[in-house]
Design goal:
The chain has six helices and 26 strands. It has about 425 residues and is of the alpha/beta class. The strands form seven sheets. A six-stranded mixed β-sheet has the order 7-4-6-5-9-8, with no helix packed on it. The structure holds adenosine monophosphate and magnesium ion (MG).
């Protein structure tokens, strides 16, 4: 049996980022940019108005004999159109936000600082003196042609999509999205639309894993359920070889029908098949042919927890991320955890911030077959191997499952723990 850290290190050493490809902009969210994005145009592409108001010569905004100057309105320009007419001394043009500044004008005054006769007024009074450039957004103010705007390695989120769209990147070079084959095992499994029968249970794991793979940003390809025979498993694995990773559930323990590791040994190689943790001892990793295989345990809670600890970092590494791990923080376990931990124990819990401390409430019965322990859980409280448990009100690290990933797999130290803070 190996430790969780050893298991992760061995798995990640065998996983490499997928090749670079180009995808349509609309499909790039969540992927990692494979090249620097250099602006090939200025943004904004032309000088335009920051306000609804009037374009004028700033020199015309000065009061005359103590009275607001009155200018003749010669027309208007809306966003999306270009005025060929120029603004000349003594005149102004109506202008809308985003419209190109007409030739001749060097400034815009917002409508609130003017007085006129309404939308068709032929005159406007200027109520404030303005400087050249007032309310004008110059061409290239935001991004200049030739400037690097996004660096290679950036994760593409909604805001980066907005930048790429502005720059006209209709396709984006990225590390390819991973394609994950998902395979259930077990003669006891029936599908979700089937009525229960004696001795049978519904297949929940492949649905859970499919959803978790999608949440991790990869493509999920559920390949159904293999029967507990060597023939059925061989057939399913043959179909799974074309994917970037195979995730199985069940069939990796020491029972008579736990055949996944036998097939791995027959058609590839096993790196390990047991980890010193609870839930989730029977996790296997290795290869079938050249395709990596992560064999998760059959018990649904073990499946869920080991996917978070091993499956998610693997998918992220395949997709070129360098932030692989959910953050850990120190939490106070209100009721304590009374069970002795032989193996490293990952206890499902709900953690929230209260008065500046993270407070954990465990989520009920923790049997690895008891899906109800996943309800309302947003964290895994870690009870170290060999520990007698956690005293009520005691502290221990917890993995924050709903927080964005970080680069390291260790607790974030609370600020008060650093000696420098004392000064
Ligand atoms: P195994 O590792 O195959 O011996 O499975 C361990 C436990 O997990 C058994 O109680 C199985 O019935 C259960 N199990 C295995 N696969 C699934 C699945 N896809 N959905 C729900 N339970 C499963
Ligand atoms: Mg089984």
């Amino acid at each position: 049996m190996i430790s969780v850290e050893d298991a992760l290190a061995r798995i990640l050493a065998d996983i490499h980022a997928l090749p670079v490809t180009r995808v349509p902009l609309a499909e790039a969210v969540g992927l990692i940019l494979a090249e620097d994005v250099v602006a090939q145009d200025d943004t904004p592409p032309f000088a335009n108005s920051a306000m609804d108001g009037f374009a004028l010569l700033s020199a015309d905004s000065k009061p005359q004999d103590g009275k607001p100057p009155r200018l003749r309105v010669t027309g208007g320009v809306a966003a999306g159109y270009v005025s060929t007419e120029a603004v000349t001394p003594g005149t102004a043009m109506r202008i809308m936000t985003g419209a190109p500044v007409p030739p001749g004008a060097d400034s815009v005054i917002q409508i609130e600082l003017t007085r006129n006769d309404g939308p068709t007024s032929e005159w406007v009074e200027i109520l404030q003196t303005i400087a050249p450039g007032n309310n004008i957004r110059p061409a290239g103010e935001d991004m200049q042609r030739g400037q690097t705007i996004l660096a290679r390695g950036t994760e593409i989120g909604a805001w980066e999509i907005g930048i790429l769209a502005t720059l006209g990147w209709s396709t984006v070079p990225v590390t390819r999205r991973a394609r994950i084959a998902i395979l259930g095992t077990g003669d006891e499994l029936i599908d979700v639309d089937q009525p229960l029968q004696p001795g049978k249970i519904r297949n929940s794991n492949t649905y859970l894993i499919t959803a978790a793979v999608q949440q991790a940003g990869a493509e999920a390809h559920p390949l159904g359920v293999a029967r507990d025979t060597v023939e059925s498993l061989r057939e399913k694995f043959a179909a799974a070889l074309q994917y970037d990773l195979i995730i199985t559930s069940g069939g990796v323990s020491v029972g008579d029908f736990d055949l996944v590791k036998d097939i791995m040994a027959e058609q590839g190689q096993i790196s390990f098949w047991r980890i010193n943790m609870k839930p989730g001892k029977p996790v296997a990793f290795g290869h079938i042919g050249k395709t990596p295989l992560l064999g998760l345990p059959g018990n649904p809670v073990s499946t869920a927890v080991t996917f978070e600890l091993f499956g998610r970092p693997v998918i992220r590494k395949l997709q070129g991320h360098d932030h692989l791990f959910k953050p850990q923080v120190e939490v106070t376990v209100v009721e304590g955890i009374h069970e002795r931990a032989g193996r490293r124990n990952y206890v499902r819990a709900h953690v929230e911030l209260q008065d500046g401390r993270f407070i954990a409430h465990t989520t009920g019965k923790q049997g690895s077959h008891m899906l109800t322990s996943l309800r309302n859980a947003n964290a895994l409280v870690i009870v170290p191997e060999g520990s007698p448990g956690i005293q009520p009100g005691g502290t221990t690290p917890a993995i924050m499952l709903k927080w964005p990933e970080v680069a390291y797999n260790q607790p974030i130290q609370p600020a008060t723990d650093t000696p420098n803070e004392q000064a």
